[in-house]
Amino acid sequence: MKAVVHEGQAGINGLSYREMEEPKVGETEVKVKLKAAGLNRRDIMVLTRHKEDQPPLIVGSDGAGIIEEVGSGVSNFNVGDEVIINPSLGWKEKSAVPPKGFEIVGLPDHGTFAEKIVLPVDNVEKKPAHLSWEEASVLSLAAITAYRVLFTRGNVTADDTVMIPGIGSGVATFLLLFAKKVGARVIVTSRSKEKQKKALELGADLAIDTYSDWNKELKDEKVSLLIESIGRATFNKSINIIERGGTIVTFGATTEDEVNIDMRHFFYGQYNLLGSTMGSREEMHEMLAFIEKHEIKPIVDKTFLPEDFEEAFHYLKESQNFGKVTFSFTS
After folding, report:
1. How many Å separate Cα 44 from the centre of its chain?
2. Taking each helix axis from N to C terminus, what angle separates 281-294 and 140-147, rounded to the nearest 10 degrees?
3. Among 146, 130, 40, which residue's Cα sits nearest to residue 82?
4. Is the pTM of this model over 0.90?
5. How many domains does the chain have?
């Protein structure tokens, strides 16, 4: 089978599109013939975390396709079922933190950027009927991350004013769509006028420049729930825009990881700072029910052929996307 494989060199230069051995199915596993496979920023990080002296690795965490084979112990799925991949390995019930042994599809084991993948049966879910293959392929990782951030960690309600610095990523667009469905006011930021415009078209109540004076732009309006994923470049601006007793939930850092905080300002403000990553199978089921109830569709920015992997990775790395990017295996 053909796959996008990383080996030998760190970064994008270590990628190739080549033949790999087709995986065999275990007793409680299923083999999925992939129709499409979504890219995430995690895939870029994997190209550094997967070392040059390690065996070849098929990259990718997201995907959707048709079950081609089931193990002898599988009774809840059949050959021909249309499914999406749940990339959270070993995290079943909703909990404060992932359990010991939690991993994500695509490292350390093979991922989804291939014609076929074998996974535990617990890591596939029925494909939402209202989604195309491309839409379904980009859903899981970003949507479950956004769902846990907003609902499990942020406890979002219709009374909240939610701020999302750096609109444009897959998770950020899901955050916007989800928050608007519960009736919250949503403010977004971007350096790009085009991304600000697209966010407003998706339902954002206000879009401002990331580099602007946020307090001035908001005319001293305060934010009750802010979702931070940029890091050092915006973190202190985020603290200074939330209301006293407000909450910041962080799930990533596209700029530097380390930040300096004025602790006196922080504790006098009674602020809450929460971390989040991915989500459980239970939260996956909640998220799928939510998007089906509200008929939410992922924003698919661009579709690439897998042999065009280099262009796709650079496109994502340079943050050219508004929404999600995917590989199509249907041609």
Report:
1. 13
2. 90
3. 130
4. yes
5. 2
For residue 256, the model assigns a pLDDT of: 76
Structure tokens of 167? 């609109």
Q: Which segments within 94-234 are labelled E, that is strand?
A: 103-104, 116-120, 124-126, 161-164, 185-190, 206-209, 223-228
pLDDT digits (tens, 9 = 90+) for 98-146: 999 999 999 999 999 999 999 999 999 999 999 999 999 999 999 999 9
Residue from 222, 195, 225 nearest 208 by CA: 195
Q: What is the CATH number of the domain that holds 134?
A: 3.90.180.10
The length of the chain, given as a count of residues: 331
Where do we find the tokens 């109830």?
A: 293
Find the CATH number of the domain harbouring 233: 3.40.50.720
Determine how many CB atoms are found less than 10 A away from the CB of residue 73.
10
Poorest-pLDDT segment among 55-64, 166-175, 248-257 = 248-257
Burial 174-198 (b: 16+ CB within 10 A, else e): bbbbbbbbbebbbbbbbebeebbeb
Q: What is the average pLDDT score of the chain?
A: 95
Side-chain-facing half-sphere of 108: CA atoms under 13 Å = 5
Per-residue model confidence (pLDDT) at position 331: 59
